[in-house]
Design goal:
Blueprint lengths: L3 H10 L5 E6 L11 E6 L4 H14 L3 E3 L6 E3 L4 E6 L7 E4 L2 E5 L4 H10 L2 E2 L11 H6 L3 E2 L2 E2 L4 E7 L5 E5 L18 E8 L1 E2 L2 H18 L6 E4 L9 H7 L6 E2 L2 E3 L6 E4 L5 H19 L8 E3 L5
Parallel strand pairs: 2-5, 3-5, 4-19
Antiparallel strand pairs: 1-2, 6-7, 7-13, 8-14, 9-10, 11-12, 11-13, 15-18, 16-17, 17-18
Function: Cell wall formation.
Family: Belongs to the MurB family.
GO molecular function: FAD binding; UDP-N-acetylmuramate dehydrogenase activity
Length: 305
């Protein structure tokens, strides 16, 4: 049952247009999967984020941060309570040799702002799907670079709704991980410390990385990007390929023929089909090579009853 008292408080904090009721989350995830959220809230200021967190605590309503849905699978039963998406917090600005980006901005657009200002250090991010907040959450990386290489500080809201400014080292950034989830932080803003460089050289690196990504990754179908972390000493995609799994399909979900590390939503897959295929890949690789593939993608929400 949707609680109208909570709905009224949410629209008082932000506005009616920023609170969607029973909103299908497959509209908001890169995989195009997922059931409905009781309330999908899209705040426009840091203060609104803070107040919504405080409301969820006070009313004891479940609270979930969706990010921009790039590295996420939402189950078919959807998510109860308040689901927050920060895509409206998307400003990017440059201050000297630092680029300051709000969490809902795309990390790709942040790397382009750095290029336009002749700043080097964010080239690796030019092909990473997802938001700045999500990039910090998982210390996103590609082609030898990662967020921890250039992040100076972050502004976050903690689980009590307080706004904090933290140095990068306080986030414990490591391979595809951070302490952001453990501490209940919501990233509002990131400051990247970069260096002046040559525009043409920076652009050449970014063009090369973009070509590599577009030629190797199955961008023609919805997906969550790389499904698995790289196991020590191996490449996930190669293990999956060598297990004969490329092209394997459960329902509408398929192990990509273009890059075995990706699972694509080829034909109106359900989240259940997608998750079953992930487990099948994990079990097969474990059986053939004795290697446990760890998921990079998050799975949240409830199963259909």
């Amino acid at each position: 049952m949707i609680n109208h008292h909570v709905y009224e408080k949410l629209i008082n904090i932000t506005s009616e247009k920023n609170v969607l009721v029973n909103e299908p989350l497959k509209k908001h995830t890169y995989t195009r999967l997922g059931g409905a959220a009781d309330w999908l809230v899209t705040p426009e200021t840091y203060e609104e984020v803070s107040e919504i967190v405080k409301l969820a605590n006070k009313e004891e309503v479940p609270f979930t941060l969706l990010g921009n849905g790039s590295n996420l699978i939402v189950k078919d039963g959807g998510i109860r309570g308040i689901v927050m998406n920060l895509y409206k917090l998307n400003e990017i600005k440059t201050v000297g040799t630092k680029v300051v980006a709000q969490s809902g901005a795309r990390i790709i657009d942040t790397s382009r702002e750095a290029l336009n200002q002749r700043l080097t250090g964010l080239e690796f991010a030019c092909g990473i799907p997802g938001s700045v907040g999500g990039a910090l959450y998982m210390n996103a990386g590609a082609y030898g670079g990662e967020i921890k290489d250039c992040l100076e500080s972050a502004v976050v809201v903690d689980r009590y709704g307080e706004v904090l400014t933290l140095p990068a080292k306080a986030l414990d950034l490591a391979y595809r991980t951070s302490n952001i989830a453990d501490n209940g932080y919501i990233v509002l803003e990131a400051t990247f410390a970069l260096e002046l460089g040559d525009y043409d050289e920076i652009k050449a690196v970014m063009d090369d990385l973009t070509f590599k990504r577009e030629s190797k990754q199955p961008l023609e179908y919805p997906s969550c990007g790389s499904v698995f972390k790289r196991p020590p000493g191996y490449f996930a995609g190669k293990l999956i390929q060598d297990s004969g799994l490329q092209g394997t399909q459960i329902g509408g979900a398929q192990v990509s023929l273009k890059h075995a590390g990706f699972i694509v939503n080829k034909d109106n897959a359900t989240a259940d089909e997608y998750i079953r295929l992930i487990r099948h890949v994990q079990a097969t690789v474990k059986e053939k090579f004795g290697v446990s593939l760890e998921r990079e993608v998050r799975i949240i929400g409830e199963d259909l009853e």
